[in-house]
Amino acid sequence: MHRGKGMKFVGDSRVPVSNKKHIPKDYSEYPGKTEAFWPNFLLKEWLVGSVFLVAFLCLTAAHPSPLEKVADPTAAGYIPLPDWYFLFMYQLIKYTYASGDFNVIGTLVIPGLAFGALLLAPFLDRGPERRPSKRPIATGMMLLAFASVAYLTWESASHVDWEARAESAKIVAEAEIDKDSEGYAIYSAQSCIGCHGQDLEGGPAGKALVDNGLSPEDIARIAREGQGNMPANAFEGSDEELQKLAEFISSVTSK
């Protein structure tokens, strides 16, 4: 057989000539609804991201993060509180069936179900619609999540004494205190530690007494007449003890 002769081409109807089923249509077939990824879409995303980044940098420069004193597990006056974005979890574990013996429910089960539903959202609602009203499952899940977080955050924030919290977390100067002195013995005996702290660092019920700038006479007068949260006649000792206590507190200064 000579080359090129006697050859026949047989077509099989089971083999398609071309398979266009999995080839997406060109974006030009959807005018006004799609656009080229490069550079149109990517440029818009970059511009939006840049605006948010600049705004965030300006916010952090104008309002720097507040610093608190070093955490001390022995300080009974310190009021622990998480950052605002965790307040909803802080409130959740206060409820009966999410704390105590049921702490696992509040810390693992409920958050696990919430994040699990978020991960499964693309599989639970696979519709092509983009309108929220046409996607009831995804819309309902997100509305429920936002409402729950907003309510728990509000409940937690409304029950916090923010002034006392700020006072208990305030950074105070360290002072060298002679705890063997007679003045400190009177300070301990009069239960001043409960409000003003073991090292006069202050607490939720009392101000810091380090570098107070008051004279012994002013301190003695406040102890007798009261001031702010401190009631009148809080000191129950003698005038001589009050004088020694006032001189001790007035002498406490930072290092």
UniProtKB/TrEMBL annotation:
<dbReference type="Pfam" id="PF00032">
    <property type="entry name" value="Cytochrom_B_C"/>
</dbReference>
<feature type="transmembrane region" description="Helical">
    <location>
        <begin position="105"/>
        <end position="124"/>
    </location>
</feature>
<keyword id="KW-0408">Iron</keyword>
<protein>
    <recommendedName>
        <fullName>Menaquinol:cytochrome c reductase cytochrome c subunit</fullName>
    </recommendedName>
</protein>
<dbReference type="GO" id="GO:0016020">
    <property type="term" value="C:membrane"/>
</dbReference>
<keyword id="KW-0813">Transport</keyword>
<keyword id="KW-0249">Electron transport</keyword>
<dbReference type="GO" id="GO:0009055">
    <property type="term" value="F:electron transfer activity"/>
</dbReference>
<feature type="domain" description="Cytochrome b/b6 C-terminal region profile">
    <location>
        <begin position="27"/>
        <end position="154"/>
    </location>
</feature>
<dbReference type="GO" id="GO:0020037">
    <property type="term" value="F:heme binding"/>
</dbReference>
<dbReference type="InterPro" id="IPR012049">
    <property type="entry name" value="MenaQ_cyt_c_Rdtase_cyt_b/c-su"/>
</dbReference>
<keyword id="KW-1133">Transmembrane helix</keyword>
<feature type="domain" description="Cytochrome c">
    <location>
        <begin position="178"/>
        <end position="253"/>
    </location>
</feature>
<feature type="transmembrane region" description="Helical">
    <location>
        <begin position="136"/>
        <end position="154"/>
    </location>
</feature>
<keyword id="KW-0812">Transmembrane</keyword>
<dbReference type="GO" id="GO:0005506">
    <property type="term" value="F:iron ion binding"/>
</dbReference>
<comment type="similarity">
    <text>Belongs to the cytochrome b family.</text>
</comment>
<feature type="binding site" description="axial binding residue">
    <location>
        <position position="196"/>
    </location>
    <ligand>
        <name>heme c</name>
    </ligand>
</feature>
<dbReference type="InterPro" id="IPR027387">
    <property type="entry name" value="Cytb/b6-like_sf"/>
</dbReference>
<dbReference type="Pfam" id="PF13442">
    <property type="entry name" value="Cytochrome_CBB3"/>
</dbReference>
<feature type="transmembrane region" description="Helical">
    <location>
        <begin position="46"/>
        <end position="63"/>
    </location>
</feature>
<dbReference type="InterPro" id="IPR036150">
    <property type="entry name" value="Cyt_b/b6_C_sf"/>
</dbReference>
<keyword id="KW-0472">Membrane</keyword>
<dbReference type="InterPro" id="IPR051811">
    <property type="entry name" value="Cytochrome_c550/c551-like"/>
</dbReference>
<dbReference type="InterPro" id="IPR036909">
    <property type="entry name" value="Cyt_c-like_dom_sf"/>
</dbReference>
<feature type="binding site" description="covalent">
    <location>
        <position position="192"/>
    </location>
    <ligand>
        <name>heme c</name>
    </ligand>
</feature>
<dbReference type="GO" id="GO:0016491">
    <property type="term" value="F:oxidoreductase activity"/>
</dbReference>
<keyword id="KW-0479">Metal-binding</keyword>
<dbReference type="InterPro" id="IPR005798">
    <property type="entry name" value="Cyt_b/b6_C"/>
</dbReference>
<keyword id="KW-0349">Heme</keyword>
<comment type="subunit">
    <text>The main subunits of the menaquinol:cytochrome c complex are a Rieske-type iron-sulfur protein (QcrA), a cytochrome b (QcrB) and a cytochrome c (QcrC).</text>
</comment>
<feature type="binding site" description="covalent">
    <location>
        <position position="195"/>
    </location>
    <ligand>
        <name>heme c</name>
    </ligand>
</feature>
<comment type="function">
    <text>Component of the menaquinol:cytochrome c reductase complex.</text>
</comment>
<dbReference type="InterPro" id="IPR009056">
    <property type="entry name" value="Cyt_c-like_dom"/>
</dbReference>
